[in-house]
């Protein structure tokens, strides 16, 4: 791989800003193959050099992948004058990495949102051609029935003309308020809400719980993020 500046390589971990790397180098706390770096601008091959910060070898990430447990009240955008965005939930060193949300969750929708700066794979995860299921936990006003499940499975056409691909509806509980998992291969604007509204069972709460083979990490509190592991990113690359 091409040589890159140490500050860029180390900042890619999301743990230190470039300015912090400069200070660490000055303090002799950055070693390249066991030798203290002289300048944050020194270059190294991130795939072959052993780069250690404070005695700990760092793993270079070409792209950054972050799982966020989105709370209600945040927009899935990088900038928006209308209110806080999901980027506001990340620390400054991550915000500097040009991350963008992989698809959108509505402002009031919670749960699994991926953010990355790897455009190609992000695009694949969203394209219906790649068959990546997105699974939502929905609570609705009104009793869900087997007829609703059949309507979802047959591919609904909404009153506004939107033709939906066949989708999954698994009822978890049915009553005055019902609960279900909804599985979609696509992600049209407000799609889950529109499909359930058309069945006369408007959504009162929505949370995304899975994308393809990646579930929302139950240990991740609402509003918190973590990096995806190399294995999780590898799994996203596999056909789902
Ligand atoms: N469908 C919706 O209606 N809203 C979301 O946020 C995601 C899917």
Describe this structure in words.
The chain is built from seven helices and 15 strands. The longest helix has 9 residues, at 18-26. It has 240 residues and is of the alpha+beta class. The model has no long low-confidence stretch (mean pLDDT 93). The protein is 22% helix and 27% strand. Strands 7, 8, 9, 10, 11, 12, 13, 14 and 15 form a nine-stranded mixed sheet that branches. Strands 3-2-5-6 form a four-stranded antiparallel sheet. A two-stranded antiparallel ribbon has the order 1-4. The two termini are 29 Å apart. The site of uracil has 8 residues, from helix 6.
Question: Major β-sheet, in short?
Answer: 9 strands, mixed
Structural class: alpha+beta
Average predicted local confidence, pLDDT: 93
Number of discrete helical segments? 7
Radius of gyration: 22 Å
Helix proportion: 10-25%
Order of helices and strands: EHHEEEEEEHEEHEHEEHEEEH
Ligand kinds: uracil
What percent of residues are in strands?
Answer: 25-35%
Shape annotation: elongated
> Which blocks of ≥5 consecutive residues have pLDDT under 50?
none
N-end to C-end Cα span: 29 Å
Care to count the β-strands?
A: 15
């Amino acid at each position: 791989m091409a040589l890159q500046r140490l500050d860029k390589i180390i900042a890619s971990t999301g743990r230190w800003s470039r300015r912090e790397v400069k200070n660490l180098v000055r303090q002799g706390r950055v070693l390249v193959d066991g030798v203290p770096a002289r300048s944050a601008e020194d270059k190294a091959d991130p795939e072959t050099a052993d780069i250690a910060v404070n005695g700990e070898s760092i793993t270079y990430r070409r792209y950054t992948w972050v799982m966020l447990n989105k709370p209600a009240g945040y927009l899935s955008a990088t900038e928006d004058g209308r209110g806080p965005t999901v980027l506001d939930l990340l620390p400054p060193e991550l915000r500097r990495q040009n991350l963008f949300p992989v698809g959108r969750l509505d402002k009031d929708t919670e749960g699994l949102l991926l953010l990355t700066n790897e455009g190609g794979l992000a695009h694949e995860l969203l394209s219906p051609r790649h068959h990546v299921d997105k699974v939502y936990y929905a609570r609705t006003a009104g009793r869900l029935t087997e007829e609703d499940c059949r309507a979802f499975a047959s591919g609904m056409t909404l009153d506004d003309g939107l033709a939906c691909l066949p989708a999954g509806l698994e009822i978890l509980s049915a009553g005055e308020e019902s609960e279900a998992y909804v599985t979609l291969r696509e992600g049209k604007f407000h799609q889950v809400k529109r499909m359930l509204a058309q069945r006369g069972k408007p959504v009162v709460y929505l949370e995304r719980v899975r994308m393809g083979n990646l579930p929302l990490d139950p240990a991740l509190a609402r509003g918190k993020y973590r990096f995806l592991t190399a294995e999780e990113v590898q799994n996203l690359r596999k056909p789902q």
